[in-house]
């Protein structure tokens, strides 16, 4: 089959790899029908995630069709259309029993495209399929659903829930890329007084306004002052960091009010300064986290009910074979205006397992 291979920092290509095979009775083999590229994939290509070894198939978000299910798999069968979660869960370890699947110690967690081959391929092996794929209703479009593999549960759990957004809050979202935009959408589920979006790119700020941000500011034009002006000098109740660079994290710390919460979502490849000489007296809560995807079933219900605007985040579509072009477009978002790119097709008329099955 064809897949997107990581060969080391700065080097990827769409090439031939062996078909995936089931390695455990809890595995499923899924034909990939729709897939996307995550900002974390860009961090991997830059070399910010050294655990990813050369030769790894990247990707951890997809919608597909089950072509093989192991004997222990009970929730899906061949022919079912499913959402593949970015997080795999063994279901047995302490963290899985607490619903903290991202911290799984039984062989799951973030493994796809990280420690095992991922979803940017024609077929993918999904471990622990019963807890790691979600059947999709026929009414849900594949390209809408693929955004629930990672960015919406990440924004909701690591941003909105960790930040404890409450009715009447002022929420500042630093970074209006896909995760930041999803954070705006999910924060608004809790009726904040206002959401303020901060970014360097005007197209992303325009998208933030379209998705419900009441105010926007360019990151290079003193957004802290706008937050202060809108809150009577107090600062934001909740600040969500959705970039992953030291400058944006430190900006968040300047925006938050005494007693406020800073929820870090961004994937950081470099140290950021924590100014405890200023913060020790302010009662600030700082949270970090890897998504658990325990919210995915609820988000799928909202999507099916028309309550989540996912389609608006996809700005570019490609066929699977155009993976390298898609990476280029997504990686140059400031020039291309890309928010989220989606790849899929050409579609097959029948569900056919890879050769050798």
From TrEMBL:
> What is the protein name for this chain?
Zinc-dependent alcohol dehydrogenase family protein
Family as reported in the entry's similarity comment: Belongs to the zinc-containing alcohol dehydrogenase family.
SUPFAM superfamilies, sorted? GroES-like, NAD(P)-binding Rossmann-fold domains
Leader sequence residues: none
Query: Which positions fall inside the Enoyl reductase (ER) domain?
Result: 8-343
Specify the species: Streptomyces laculatispora
Query: Which key words are in the record?
Result: Metal-binding, Oxidoreductase, Zinc
Q: Which SMART domains does this entry report, sorted A to Z? A: PKS_ER (SM00829)
Looking up Gene3D superfamilies in the UniProt record yields: Medium-chain alcohol dehydrogenases, catalytic domain, NAD(P)-binding Rossmann-like Domain
Cofactor(s) required, per the database record: Zn(2+)
Q: Tell me any Pfam family this protein matches.
A: ADH_N
């Amino acid at each position: 089959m064809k897949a997107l291979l990581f060969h080391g920092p700065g080097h990827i290509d769409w090439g031939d790899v062996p078909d995936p095979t089931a390695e455990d009775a809890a595995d499923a083999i899924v034909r990939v029908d729709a897939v996307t590229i995550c900002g974390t994939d860009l961090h991997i290509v830059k070399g910010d995630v050294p655990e990813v070894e050369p030769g790894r198939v990247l990707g951890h978000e997809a919608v597909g069709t089950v072509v093989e299910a192991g004997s222990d798999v009970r929730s899906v069968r061949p022919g079912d259309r499913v959402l593949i979660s970015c997080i795999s869960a063994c279901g047995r370890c302490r963290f899985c029993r607490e619903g903290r699947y991202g911290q799984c110690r039984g062989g799951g967690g973030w493994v796809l495209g990280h420690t095992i081959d991922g979803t940017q391929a024609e077929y993918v092996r999904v471990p622990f399929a019963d807890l790691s794929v979600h059947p999709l209703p026929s009414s849900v479009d594949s390209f809408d659903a693929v955004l629930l593999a990672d960015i919406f549960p990440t924004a909701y759990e690591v941003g909105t829930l960790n930040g404890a957004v409450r009715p009447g809050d002022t929420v500042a979202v630093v970074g209006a890329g896909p995760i930041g935009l999803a954070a705006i959408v999910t924060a608004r589920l809790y009726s904040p007084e206002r959401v303020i979006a901060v970014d360097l790119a005007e197209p992303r700020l325009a998208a933030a306004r379209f998705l419900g941000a009441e105010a926007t500011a360019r990151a290079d034009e003193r957004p802290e002052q706008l937050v202060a002006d809108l809150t009577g000098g107090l600062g934001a109740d909740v600040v969500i960091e959705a970039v992953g660079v030291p400058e944006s994290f430190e900006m968040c710390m300047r925006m938050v009010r005494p007693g406020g919460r800073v929820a870090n979502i961004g994937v950081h490849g470099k140290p950021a300064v924590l100014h405890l000489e200023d913060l020790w007296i302010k009662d600030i809560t700082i949270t970090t986290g890897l998504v658990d995807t325990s919210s995915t079933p609820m988000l799928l219900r909202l999507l099916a009910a028309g309550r989540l605007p996912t389609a608006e985040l996809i700005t570019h579509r490609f066929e699977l074979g155009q993976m390298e072009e898609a990476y280029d477009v997504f990686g140059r978002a400031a020039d291309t205006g890309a928010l989220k790119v989606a790849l899929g097709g050409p579609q097959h008329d029948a569900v056919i397992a890879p050769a050798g099955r």
